Each structure stands twice: as C-alpha cells, then as structure tokens.
Amino acid sequence: MMLLRWLGRLLWRIVSVLLAVVGAVVVGFAVIVGLAFFVVPIPGLKPASLPSSMVLTVTIDGKLGSSDSDSLGRALRSRNLGLEDALAALARAETDGAVKGILLDLSRASPGLGEAQELRDAVVRMRAAGKPVIAFADGFGEGGGLGSGTAYYVASAADQVWMQPSGDWGWTGASLDGVFFKDTFGKLGLAADFIQRHEYKGAAESFTRSSFSEPVRENLGRAVQGWFQQMLKGVADSRGIPEATLRTMVDGAPLSSGEALRSKLVDKLGYRKDAADDAGTRDGKAEAISLERYFRRHGTPWSEGPVIAIIHGDGEVVRAEGRSFGRPRFSADRVGKALDEAIEDPDVVAIVLRIDSPGGSYVASDAIFDQIRRARKVKPVIASLKDVAASGGYFVALAASRIIASPGTLTGSVGVVGGKVVAAELLKSAGVSTDAIEVGEHAGMWKMTRPFTDEERRRVESMFDRAYLDFTQKVGEARKLSPEEVDKVARGRVWTGEDARKLKLTDEEGGFLAAIAAAKQLAGLAPDAKVTVDTYPEAKAPWEMLRDALFSGDLPEDIETLLGGIRWLTALTRLVPEAGVQLR
Fold first, then answer.
1. What is the pTM of this model?
2. CA distances from 506 to 268, 308, 321, 401, 486 (A)
3. What is the distance between the alpha carbons of residues 215 and 485, in angstroms, rounded to a whole number?
4. Of 413, 534, 505, 498, which Cα lies nearest the Cα of 117?
C-alpha cells in the first residue's frame, strides 16, 4: 500500500511538472503570437497616407542584414528594414517630391564594410537627387577597431555630420582578431586533428595554433589594410581632408567632440532633436516619418514589368535547412527550391543571388553550384556578394553568369579544411572508458575517441586533395584563368572585393542596385526598363514562422533565442566545425 501511495505521489509530481512545462510553453506561444500580430506589421496592411512634406528618419541598429528572413526571432526583434528593402525605399525616395530630406541616425550602427558601402552609395544618390542628408550619432565608434569606423564612413558622405556633445569620435583604425584554443584544448585533454589545403587556409588555426601562422597573417593583413585604405580614402574625399592628415587623426583617436568639430570631422554638435530640427522638421516644415513606415506604405519602386527574382544565401552553407530560427543558414535544399520556383515562373527574366556566407560544407556548396549552373542555362543568374562570400560562399558564386562584389567584401578563400577533435585524453582523465564493435577497416575513423591512423590520414588527405582540385578547376573554368593564375589567387587566400576584381575573381564592383542593373542587361532589358523585384521563396508572415517553428519541433530553441537565453552555451556547440571536407 505504501508503495502504491509513493508511486501515486511520484506520478502526480511528474504530471504536475509536465503541466507546468505545457503551461509555460502555452504562455510563450501567447507572448509570441501577441508580438507577431501587434508588434510586427501585418503584411499587406498599409498604414495611413503619408504627409505631403516629410523627412525620412533612418535609424540603423547594428547591422541591417538580409531583407529575406524566415526567422521569427529577427522579425520580432529587429528595428530595421533589411538592407535590400532599405535600399529600395531610399531609391523610391530619390524621385518622391514629398521627401524633403533624410535624417540618418547611426548611434547604434555597426554595419560590415560591404553593407556600409551600399548605404554610403545610397546617401550619395540621395544628395545627387537634391535630398539633403543629415547624419547623427551620439558618438562614433566608441568600441574601436573596424566597427568603430564603418558608421562614420557612412556618415561622412552626408551633407552634415552631427554628434552629441558628450560623445567621442573613436575611429581608431581597422583590426581583425583571432581567438586560439590550442592551449585550452591541451589543458582539457583535447587534440585538434585538422588538414588544410593550403598554407593560407586559416580556418582551423583557431584549434591547431596559438597565433596566426605567417602566411595567414600576411594574407589577412593585406585584407585589413585594404579595408582601412578604402575607408580612409572615402572619408578623406567626402570631408575634404588630406589622407595623411586624416590618418594622423585616426592614430590620435579617440577624440573629444570639440576636437572632432575643430578638425572638421563633424559639422555640428547637438542632440538628436537638434539634428532632426535642422533636417527640416522645425516649425512644421516637414513631418518626420520613419523609413519603415514609408516602405510599408509605398513598397518597392520595382513593382511592374518583368520579374527579377531575388534569392538570399545567408549564413553557413549546409545541406538541409534544419533549425533556422536563431541564425540564417544557406541550405542547398532551400536555395534549390527557390531556384526551381524562379525558373518555372514565366514572368521571371533573371535571378539575383545575394550571398553573405563564410562557407561551410563542400558537398552542400557543390550541390548549390550545380543548381545555379542548371538555372543559368535557362535564365541569367547574378551573384551579388555582400559583406562576406568566402570559400563555400565564393564556390557557389562561380556558377553565376556574373559576379558582383562591393570593394569591401571579403571573398575568395579558395581552399579546403577539415578534420576532427580527439577527446581521448579528456575521457581518460575523467575516468570514462569507451569501446566499440565495428565492421569495416575504417568504421570508426571519424570518432572523437581516437586519432586517425596513418592509413586513415592518407585517405582523408586524398579526399581533401580531390576537393581542392575540384574547387580550383571550377575557378579556372568559370573565371577563364590558367592553372598558374589560379594558384596565385588560391591556396586559401582571402581577398577584398577591390582586389578580387583586379585578379579576375569577380566581374565588377557594386551592391544590390548594381546587381539589379546587371540583371536587366543580361535579360535584354533597357537600363530604365520597369521591372518587378520579388523575393523567392516569398517571405513568410510572422504567424507562418510561428506555425513552422511549432510543427518542426524547433520552438524550445526559438523561445530561448527570442528571450535572450544563454547564447554562449549554444555557441559552444558550434565552436568546432563538423567532420568532413569543409570550405570555410
């Protein structure tokens, strides 16, 4: 009897815990649904008509990122339009007589250099269209490094640059940091067993070394120097400051607001409201309207005529989409379906693939390459490279009809890397024993419990040699380069978009608008032809993202990501690349 009572109490506790968990999940659903329907605008529902005289306020929080997002978390968290939608809205505003100017708030902006260059070009076009642009920040680049300069780099193209009196001008240069775990692994009883092709392929050095190797240091140093020089020249030209003088200012940063004003790095000191008043909203001259509201009312300027399909390839290159709430994934499955839709749609005349990816799986990259190659036989495909399109991200672009990259895009990285982390010593020190029953000479070769045997290492190296040969042959064929020319740009080297064009790895410099122009040209349309620009697959509404998260079983991770969670814990699971051949 006592046993029955104990079992009954145990069962009741289990049921109580389950009910509590279900209740928490239901509450979480309610919160997400409420946010989805009341915070996020409902697609297709336009706001009230806009005033006849307005100043568009563009507030950039962090990095804009892609306009295509099947991420419920991004939809609920982001205050920004995606980059492509923001560029479309500004393109429409260029010819809109009701728009009297732009107030650009960069206080929390930290765009990558490729994204910054696209935004900067948009500022230049607005000014050329007679729309004054005022850029404001409470401080420029207080964090230091490359990110300390990209926001100011965008701001410097404006008619006026405002800064809060208490802020600092903190562009201190450009840097690229490496984090190395070899010694940590040694203390933990872990050993990194990786293979790379070739000496400039540094993706595994975080696990195999305690500092950059000389080839990787030299290669990355060239890229960082290129980034800095592009920004230095752009700011110097816009602000009318000699490059040598500006370099001295950078080396002397951070500067106080007064020093920045005296050095002509900023035009006025004041607060955001002061800048907004100066932008044309004082005394009711023009009403301040957010760029998001403007876009929701007017949409894209490209909404009639033949269709140019936009497909986004963001994040790690993988075979299947899997969990995608917390971060984008450049999946072969998803891109293949989108390409099929675009090919089968008789209204689509060209395809633009926007790539922002550091690479990933070789097999997945090759699958996407083949999908693009097949699509190209039917309709032109333009690869538009954003902040990063390197290794696998560049591999897939090789199949396109044309490759376009911003000067600051990081691309190339023609090389292969992969291997495994061996945890034998860690397990031994923890008192963990392992055993296995294996059929096949090399059935356990990828296990973390032991290193490769000599024969297994020879086989793995042979795999990597084949992958590298395939990669370099595709580069040679696509870019019409001899084996000797390919060798000079490959071996794992990364390049800025500026260098990549000179080395014939890309066709031209530019961003999203340049890709649209190229799509028109390759489709046989006039430069001023009207077109419709649509995303494939069609972007999902928040309720659809919620439904997908629920029925795919991803919601617990989604809720964790949405609410902040313990992100460092999930980051640890992505610390070590997966086994197999990688283009990273």
1. 0.85
2. 40, 21, 28, 11, 13
3. 19
4. 498
- Name the token pair of 178: 């490496």
Cβ 107 vs Cβ 62: under 8 Å = no
In 480-553, alpha helices (H): 483-489, 497-502, 512-522, 542-552
Q: Is the dihedral of CA 569, 572, 574, 579 positive or negative?
A: negative
All residues at 6 or more sequence positions from 296 whose CB lies less than 8 Å from its CB, including other chains: 41, 46, 47
Interval 70-129: pLDDT, tens: 555 445 444 568 999 999 999 999 999 999 999 999 999 999 999 999 999 999 999 999
- CA gap 116, 513 in Å, rounded: 14
User: What string of DSSP letters covers 285-302?
Assistant: SSEEEEHHHHHHHH--S-
Annotated domain spans of the chain? 54-173+253-298
Q: Across-strand partners of 99?
A: 54
Mean pLDDT in residue range 382-388: 97
- Name the strand (E) or helix (H) holding 72: helix 72-77
Homologous superfamily of the 54-173+253-298 domain (CATH): 2-enoyl-CoA Hydratase; Chain A, domain 1 (3.90.226.10)
**Per-residue model confidence (pLDDT) at position 66:** 77
Residue 112: both structure tokens together: 């990558």
Lowest mean pLDDT among 155-169, 448-462, 507-521, 555-569: 555-569
